[in-house]
Amino acid sequence: MAYEIPVTQARAELADLINRVVYGGERVVVTRHGKPLVALVSAADLERLEAPADEDEVITSVSTYGPTPSAAGERPRFGLAAEHRPPEERRR
């Protein structure tokens, strides 16, 4: 969870907030009228946020899950939602 601080207070405490982020590993959300305005994060966090997602890792983690059994007499809820078939194989 991030530490929230109003923008007026953040102006006065900017050096302290930077130290909290860099050395304390915190994330700081600056608010205006109680609504999030900006966030202070470490350069390492920013690098992770901007790095492209490793699609192979995501696909591997999703493909490791097996079928979810449904209750007796209930239709399967989390099975295959759609399947591509060439036009010549489609049922009418």
How would you describe what is shown here?
Helices cover 37% and strands 16% of the residues. The protein has helices spanning 7-12, 14-24, 43-50, 55-63; strands at residues 3-6, 28-32, 35-40. The protein is of the alpha+beta class and 92 residues long. A hairpin with a 2-residue loop joins strand 2 and strand 3 (35-40). The radius of gyration is 24 Å and the shape is elongated. It has a domain at 3-49: YefM-like domain (YefM-like fold, 3-Layer(aba) Sandwich). The protein has four helices and three strands; from the N terminus they run βααββαα. The relative contact order is 0.10. The chain has a three-stranded mixed beta sheet.
Tell me, rounded to a whole number, the average pLDDT: 78
Q: How much is the radius of gyration in Å?
A: 24 Å
Strand order of the largest sheet: 1-2-3
- H/E element order: EHHEEHH
Question: What distance separates the N and C termini?
Answer: 53 Å
CATH architecture descriptor of the domain at 3-49: 3-Layer(aba) Sandwich
Question: Stretches where pLDDT falls below 50 for ≥5 residues?
Answer: none
Report the count of strand segments. Answer: 3
Question: Helix tally?
Answer: 4
- What proportion of the residues form beta strands (DSSP E)? 15-25%
Quick one: biggest sheet?
A: 3 strands, mixed
CATH topology of the domain at 3-49: YefM-like fold
Rough shape? elongated
Q: Give me the CATH superfamily of the domain at 3-49.
A: YefM-like domain
Helix content: 25-40%
Helix and strand content put the structural class at alpha+beta
CATH class of the domain at 3-49: Alpha Beta
